[in-house]
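Appendix C. Worked example: Mitochondrial inner membrane protease ATP23
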Amino acid sequence: MAEPTTNPATTTPPSPPSLDKDFYTWSTFFSILSGSATDTQRDAYFRHKDDMHEASDCARCEKDLSWLLSYSPVVRFMRHNINLLGHDLNASNMRCRRCTTNQSGGFDPEFGILLCANKFRNRGHMEDTMAHEMVHAYDHLRFKLDPLDLRHAACMEIRASTLSGECRFGREFITRGQWNITQQLQECVRRRATLSVAQRPACKDHAHATRIVDEVWGSCFADTRPFDDIYR
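Step 2, the predicted output written as C-alpha cells:
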C-alpha cells in the first residue's frame, strides 16, 4: 500500500455539504449491482453510506484492533519484532479512521499506521492489512528504506504482500476471483506490488512499475525476515 503523506489523525475530510441523499436509495443500489450505475452515482452512494456509518465503522475497527493486538499470532509476532528494534505499535499509533481513497491502510514513519475503518470486509481483512503495514514499519526500522526510491518501494510492497497473508490462496480465490493454482502467490504479489509502485509520483507508467518490480524481485521475494519462512 502507498504510504499516506499526511497525518492519519486528520485523514478524514469533512463531508460534502451538498451531498445528494437521493443517491442513497434502493434504486441506486440495484443499479450498482446490475452494472448500470454511472461512476458518479456509485461514488455518491458509497460516500453517503460511509457518512452514515462512520461512527459504527470506527467503533468496530477499534474493537477489532484491540482483539487483534491481543490474540492475532501474526500481529503479535510482528509487534514483538518491532519492539526488538526499539519501537512499539499499539492502539495509540494504530488509528482507525474513515478513508476516502481505495486503500485499506497506510504506514507513515512519523504518525504510525492508518486503518481505514470503512474499507474492512471483516476482522480477517483488517488482520491482513495490519500485518501488511507492520511489515512496512519493520522494514523502515530495520533496513532504513527510502519510500521515495522506487526500488525500495517495490521491495517493501513485495515483502509486505508476501508476508502479510493477503496473497494466500483462499484470500485470492474467495475475494478477488483469482483461480490460478500454480504460482498463485507470486502472481498476486507481483500484481499488488506493481499496482502500488505505479501509483508513486516518480513512476512513469505501468510498464515502468513492472520493470522496477522485476529488478528487485529475486532478492525481495526470498527475504522473509523476521519470519523463518512465509508464514501465511
